Amino acid sequence: MALALLSHEVSDLCIGKPPLRCLSAATATVADAIAALKSSDEPFLSVWSCNHDETNDDNNKCECECECVGKICMADVICYLTKHDNKALSLSSVFDASVSVLLPKSRSIVVHVQSSCKLIEAIDLITGGAQDLIVPIQTKPNTKRRQTRNAVVSLTATTTTTIHKNSRQFCWITQEDIIRFLLDSISVFSPLPSLSISDLGVINSTHAILSVDYYSSASSAVTAISSAIADNISVAVVDGECDGEDPRAVLIGEISPMTLACCDESAAAAVATLSAGDLMTYIDGSGPPESLVRVVRNRLEEKGLVGLISLVDSLSGSSGSSSSDEEAPAGRAKSYGRSVSSAARMARKSVAIVCNRRSSLMAVMIQAIAHRFIISLATWTNV
């Protein structure tokens, strides 16, 4: 029965998956990426090497080979704005940069596979570090012509369409999709689901834990946050350095890429000015407290970060208006949050998602799905 399960192809996991909305690495800018992310129900968007806005001599769409070169989320934008905002750069020059500056430089986290790729091969790719598998969508012949004519999705003026060479469309399979598929067939693996993750030996005790001290500046964690995005983990916020000398540092919470992905770009101002502990409060829940908003604004002025000040003012639209204490939280929540799916909003909590090493494999998988990412702190010493 287990062999029958592993004989499944990735096309079986693509049923009902929507075509990817694409950005062109050649023409899209950071501003385009922000607009596209805000208009999307999903926290991540794909970036492709091709540009379908270009036309050939016959006035047909570009027939160049298309390859997904990476994915981006609002957390990438926030890290980029935090790193590059200074007195010498105007905000427009930062936003006009190519979207490729948001892509990770170290390694690719997206892999192209054929729809006939076996499930076991897909699992090997995911465990090997891939976060998303790009799969061509199989289209019925009688609907192919209609899709070619009508299924164009425009996000901004410089965004590519979802129709690629030879009228192909793609979707992606995520770690979450594979875990859900395995959970649906969990009885096949009996009695493994009832065993603890410690007994199964799935805890990697040699994996380096990304951490930042609760009282240290959030800006000092930008590099760690960027690494966390690439590795699909979170940055632990601890009381005391977790440097090996004190392996029992107290875990306070976490800065999760998924949490940042549910914010808008103005969160870069909080990263640039607040401590790691205050940043957790700022990005948690439905919106930042009024006291922290004032702190961020004052510190931006002290540091002379004109670009971030104008960004915050342009998004809030309320720098010159007054409101009561009762009205302010609702207004801030509206400008602070993005239109994201309900599942993504569940991730907007800075409390660390942890599990006990004695928890069963099934319990951990369900917990991971519930919070839309893999449990990254399961090996924390005090858990």
Automatic annotation (TrEMBL):
<feature type="region of interest" description="Disordered">
    <location>
        <begin position="315"/>
        <end position="334"/>
    </location>
</feature>
<dbReference type="GO" id="GO:0005737">
    <property type="term" value="C:cytoplasm"/>
</dbReference>
<keyword id="KW-0129">CBS domain</keyword>
<protein>
    <recommendedName>
        <fullName>CBS domain-containing protein</fullName>
    </recommendedName>
</protein>
<dbReference type="InterPro" id="IPR050511">
    <property type="entry name" value="AMPK_gamma/SDS23_families"/>
</dbReference>
<dbReference type="GO" id="GO:0005634">
    <property type="term" value="C:nucleus"/>
</dbReference>
<keyword id="KW-0677">Repeat</keyword>
